[in-house]
């Protein structure tokens, strides 16, 4: 795997109308590194992750993703980005496997049923692929969000409240995902749970 992935956040400000949420945030990460973004409710953690993932624009500043010799803005780098968040909505009226098949098709990935089932195995949902998502518990839905995010083996993984609704085995799954991601690329984690700060090599505290 290449070791030349780089995420550069430069002088970033995020505003909603007249409300400034973030001002002048800068940092740089490289392959193998994990950043934890910590802060109180409403300090801007989720907003920062959404900007990094190209889901919303900043008021000022830039996010740059460099891979080998290529330079991307987040909206051009969706093939490199994976995002797990409580506001990531999957389709309750589809089964888990149908959800994964749909999102794989959206990403232009061809997957067999066996390959999709392997993703479910990876997140601890073996044998539950034909259940409707409406029948999933909150922790099982969170596991499926991981399968969704990892479908294309992203180089940059953004995890918003990574262990929310998880039991001890779910937390172990998150640890495993982060450990694997260290070999593949970069992880950025947003949390207000002090227990999750141990996941990071660096901690960025917002709202101070
Ligand atoms: N779409 C939006 N429109 C207007 N204001 C928003 C929007 N999204 C977030 N905000 C505001 O931006 C601020 C930061 O919200 P954000 O969700 O980024 O915080 P957070 O640190 O992730 O909070 P939490 O820990 O509660 O998840 C809050 O004041 C919130 O009300």
TrEMBL record:
Official protein name in the record: Heme exporter protein CcmA
Keyword Nucleotide-binding listed: yes
ABC transporter domain boundaries: 7-208
Any matching Pfam family: ABC_tran
Keywords, in A-Z order: ATP-binding, Nucleotide-binding, Transport
Gene3D superfamilies listed in its UniProt record: P-loop containing nucleotide triphosphate hydrolases
GO molecular function: ATP binding; ATP hydrolysis activity
Transmembrane regions listed in the UniProt entry: none
Listed PROSITE patterns: ABC_TRANSPORTER_2 (PS50893)
Organism of derivation: Roseiflexus castenholzii (strain DSM 13941 / HLO8)
Top-level taxonomic group: Bacteria
């Amino acid at each position: 795997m290449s070791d030349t992935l780089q995420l550069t956040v430069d002088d970033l400000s995020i505003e909603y109308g007249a409300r400034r949420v973030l001002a002048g945030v800068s940092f740089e990460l490289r392959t193998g590194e994990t950043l934890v973004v910590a802060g109180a409710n409403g300090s801007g953690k989720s907003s920062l992750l959404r900007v990094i993932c190209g889901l919303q624009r900043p008021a000022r500043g830039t996010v740059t993703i460099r891979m080998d010799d290529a330079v991307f803005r987040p909206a051009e780098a969706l093939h490199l980005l994976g995002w797990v968040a409580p506001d990531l909505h999957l389709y309750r009226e589809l089964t888990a496997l149908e959800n994964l098949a749909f999102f794989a098709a959206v990403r232009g990935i061809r997957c067999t049923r066996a390959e999709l089932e392997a993703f479910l195995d990876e997140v601890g949902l073996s044998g539950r692929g034909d259940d409707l998502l409406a029948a999933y518990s909150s922790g099982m839905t969170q596991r499926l969000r991981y399968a969704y995010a990892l479908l294309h083996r992203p180089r940059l993984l953004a995890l918003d409240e990574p262990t929310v609704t998880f039991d001890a085995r779910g937390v172990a799954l998150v640890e495993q995902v982060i450990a694997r991601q260290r070999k593949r690329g970069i992880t950025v984690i947003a949390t207000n749970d002090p227990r999750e700060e141990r996941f990071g090599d660096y901690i960025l505290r917002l709202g101070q």
